[in-house]
Amino acid sequence: MWYLLAASLFLLPFHLRASLGLLAISVVFAVVNHTLQPLGIIALALMAVVAIYCGRQKDQSAFALPGEILLVASAAALMLHLIPGFNNQLIVSSVRAGPESAPFTFWYNFDKSLIPFLLLGCMPTLLKRPAEPPANKLWWLVLLLAMPILLLVATLAGGLRVELHQPEWLGSFMLANLFFVSLAEEALFRGYIQQRLSQLAGNTWGLVIAAVVFGLAHSAGGPLLVFFAALTGVIYGLAWLWSGRIWVSTLVHFGFNMLHLLFFTYPVWQHQPG
Q1: What H or E segment, with its residue span, contains residue 92?
Q2: Which of 21, 68, 92, 174 has the most CB atoms lying inside 10 A of its own CB?
Q3: Which residues have C-beta within 8 Å of that of residue 171, sequence separation ≥ 6?
Q4: Is residue 95 helix, strand or coil?
């Protein structure tokens, strides 16, 4: 089921009908294996109705549809796992990537993975919009180099330590992080929030505000994580703005997370007393 769901998300930017077909099959499997339970089925059906209704509206250029508010609120609730009826699969629990890394838990999240489908109903350009590339293509190299530099700065600030990893659950992490985390977060924070804010206030303010909101979404990890998450939000936001493609910012997001996991304490450094 999870591979079908990942395939559905992979095809979403390129072949909508095939993507939706695989999503429907994934939903059936999720019901059969109780990943999707009665309350979740009802919530998903209601969200689908609203998304279809919004998708059929002629004017989607302004934040004016009540259905859009419902979809965005639903996407935020899915992001925060607030909607009951989704029995996400636990993959690893309280494991350490390395001796200095803090305990780490992650799931395959069925609820969070639905966000791109949901927001596509109110933002037709969620996955693809006209690109606004930098004046010089070398800025792409600067953007990519900013990722390891930012991780090194976080190390100097005391949040991380250099620590090489190749955990046995690496493959599962890559699947979950690419499709069920990075793509979902990019659809919400860049594809929707940054794009809508850019329409209302311009690209610069859209980039900055979306990055700040992304940082605040990591507030459970403390002020230092909020600060650095906001900075990564700027990196992802520029990748989206310059390319006009959600899959580009998703790959940048995923690449940053992989650099973090493979070469630094993950998710943070946990000081060992003594």
Answers
A1: strand 89-95
A2: 68
A3: none
A4: strand
151-177 pLDDT, tens digit each: 999 999 999 999 999 999 999 999 999
pLDDT on residue 141:
97
Phi/psi of residue 62, nearest 5 degrees: -130, 155
Predicted pLDDT at 220: 84
CB 21 within 8 A of CB 127: no
Q: Which residues contact 172 (CB under 8 A, 6 or more apart)?
A: 91, 92, 108
Contact, 136 vs 244, CB < 8 A? no
Tokens of 135: 């004046």
Q: Using an 8 Å Cβ cutoff, are 190 and 210 in contact? A: yes
Enter the tokens of residue 164: 């090489």
Cα–Cα dist 9/7, whole Å: 5
pLDDT tens-digit profile of 244-273?
A: 999 999 999 999 999 999 999 999 998 766
Residue tagged 């109110």 (tokens): 122
